[in-house]
Write a structure and sequence with these properties.
The protein is of the alpha/beta class. It contains ten helices and nine strands. Strands 1, 2, 3, 4, 5, 6, 7, 8 and 9 form a nine-stranded mixed sheet that branches. Helix 1 packs parallel to helix 2, helix 7 packs parallel to helix 9 and helix 8 packs across helix 9. The two termini are 27 Å apart.
């Protein structure tokens, strides 16, 4: 039976942790666990989680110093009892019913699989910032930087066993460790897209994302360029031709799928062909 492990890395997140815990609880998914990887908070976050966990046995807390967000994510992956992984940052949230929906979809998927959906991106004042629709997910399409990729893990889920192929998150990448992981996944399997809204990503002033967008955006962009160039070296000749066609807008047929399992009937219509 499939089980989902939702991992929340947090450090001094007292302002948001109650809503985060409640959002997971509201999913009402008995086949899901919530792992809170706290980096040693001193603002009351830990005490709030401990009190919550006494009433919610599917919530587990680890509080210890770490080497940053990627390190906390990796610790959570190692501890995860579920075979399906996602992350819930403390200031983000899932749409209602997403976890049970994901369990239903994954029941008919080969392992390993990666499935993403649409994402709402919100400003700190509650206004809509962007709608992320990552429907073009072949590796050359991601490398081309002409299409959207999955911006936040509240809108994507994957088999834990993918890390046996890709390795864990890069603890030296502090700007776009998730983008690096997605590029690596796309080298090995075809990412699957479902045209539904699953996640909500909040860009608030206290967050690392806000600070990177305002104070260190060029570093993030440079890291992305370097990752795309590195991934380009893994492309086949057919994929390189397709990438060139995307960059020059000269039509070329998309490359054939790689190591994809066949989808069972009833699920195939969900995904972009």
């Amino acid at each position: 039976m499939n089980k989902i492990s939702i991992i929340t890395p947090v450090y001094n997140g007292a302002k948001y942790i109650q809503a985060c815990l409640q959002n997971f609880a509201d999913q009402q998914s008995p086949e899901a666990e919530h792992l809170i990887m706290d980096g040693g908070s001193n603002d009351g976050t830990v005490e709030m989680i401990r009190e919550w966990a006494t009433q919610h046995p599917n919530v587990r807390l680890i509080s210890e110093k770490d080497k940053g967000q990627s390190d906390a994510m990796n610790k959570g992956i190692r501890m995860a009892e579920g075979n399906i992984i996602s992350f819930l940052n403390v200031d983000d949230y899932f749409e209602p019913g997403v976890l049970n929906r994901v369990l239903d979809i994954f029941s008919d998927l080969p392992e390993p699989s990666f499935v993403c959906s649409n994402l709402n991106i919100w400003n700190g004042d509650g206004t809509k910032r962007h709608f992320n629709k990552p429907s073009r997910l072949l590796l050359p399409e991601i490398i081309s930087n002409k299409f959207e990729w999955p911006y936040n893990p509240t809108a994507y889920f994957y088999h834990k066993s993918l890390h046996d192929i890709t390795g864990l998150y890069n603890i030296d990448n502090h700007y776009c460790m998730d983008y690096e992981f997605i590029l690596e996944v796309a080298k090995h399997i075809r990412l699957r897209y479902v045209d539904e809204v699953w996640g909500n990503f909040c860009v608030v002033e206290e967050s690392k994302t806000f600070n990177s967008h305002t104070g260190a955006i060029e570093k993030a962009r440079q890291a992305g360029r370097e990752l795309r160039e590195k991934a380009k070296a893994s492309l086949s000749e057919e994929e390189l031709r397709f990438l060139e066609s995307l960059l020059t807008e000269v039509p070329v047929a998309a490359p054939k799928p790689g190591i994809l399992g066949k989808l069972k009937s009833g699920i195939k219509g969900l995904f972009r062909p």
